[in-house]
Design brief:
It is a single chain. 36% of the residues lie in helices and 17% in strands. It is α/β, with parallel strands linked by helices. It has three domains: 2-39, no CATH class; 62-271, Type I PLP-dependent aspartate aminotransferase-like (Major domain) (Aspartate Aminotransferase, domain 2); 275-409, Aspartate Aminotransferase, domain 1, CATH 3.90.1150.10. The modification N6-(pyridoxal phosphate)lysine is found at residue 224. InterPro entries: Cys/Met-Metab_PyrdxlP-dep_enz (IPR000277), Cys_met_metab_PP (IPR054542), PyrdxlP-dep_Trfase (IPR015424), PyrdxlP-dep_Trfase_major (IPR015421), PyrdxlP-dep_Trfase_small (IPR015422). It catalyses: O-phospho-L-homoserine + L-cysteine = L,L-cystathionine + phosphate; O-succinyl-L-homoserine + L-cysteine = L,L-cystathionine + succinate + H(+).
Amino acid sequence: MSQLWNPARSELETLPDIDFSSLSIDTLATSTRFINPGTEPLVAPITHSSTYKIKNVDDYLRILQESGYIYGRLGNPNSDAVECAINALEGGAGTLVFTSGMAAISSALICFLQAGDHVICQNPVYSATFDMLDKILKKFGVETSWVPAGSDVDVYAQSIRPNTKLLYGETPCNPMMNLLNLEEFGKLGQSRAIMTMVDSTFASPFCQPTIKFGIDISMHSCTKYLGGHSDLTAGCLTFREVKNWKLMKRYQSSLGVQLSPHDGSLLLRGIKTIHVRMPRHCINAQKVAEFLEGHPKVSYVMYPGLKSHPQHDLAKQQMTRVFSGMLVVEIKGGIHGGKAFVENVRLGQLAVSLGGVETLLQHPATMTHGPMIMSDAERKKAGITDGLVRISVGLEDPDDLIRDFTQALEHVKL
């Protein structure tokens, strides 16, 4: 037996029959060993390995069938750990994590749709989702019908065709903060044997347990509230039925959109504090929304926690704890007013994304839903006006944010 000295433990480690003294430095450098000290790390180590050793050829298929580890693209321990955590929050039959929210959405659409299928989706919707349905999938023979966001589920029902295969929604929707009645949406899908998929990113699993309403697929951009610190990109899909999880798992492997071990580790760390962060996001957003609603340079505010929100009662029914940290505000003065406001904030930051500890603002008409994605006519149809500003309220002192917004609004010329 050969022995390798471990300076961290003041003792000798006995290793398999390898004569290290006979090996070249090239071999020694590539033949490191993990020495188990007999205790388990509290935080799972990041498993960077791109491939895994097997003892014999017959083990290959067995390990794959048992969801073991063969190759990094097919899965890794860090992704598995965070999938279990998200699935526990969602109450699903299984979760998969992806390289981004759009990787999750695109993979699901590719997996469950084919040429000749029909989708019904709300408008507005996240700009990249709009692009995927309206332009990319259209090239492959998938047709989409659009219904106004915030409509009764009956509007979806009226648009169903014999080839309708997917009902897609967001709640709250990006960027207008309209809500979708999840209970009625789930019932419609099940009664007509049509798959339902909901992007619940703006709410997070903490505020809105989507699967319990009978939704087939709950999607989150984990970059946002689940990660919570603006330091990773990831997405997830949680399934109501195991059969859909299994099918998506196979497509995920072939599409190559598995989350990296490092991002999986960061995401799991973020999830551990979501129950602490979200209440503060929501308290701050409520206070900021109430301030902005009373400001003379603001036309209106859309926040589910405000009584003025047209679906406030629905929000109280399905957003089970609090109303999230997202809101939109219409600044008077059109495009010049909106740009003047976001470009003069100091504590808040002008940046896309949301759900981090920092307050972020963005101007949809010129940024996320701008001309690179939507035409003026498409934005008008979606209700995205020139003065609209989306705000992700962070964890700062809300009174400091209100002072910052007050001085920024002074730059708005009417």
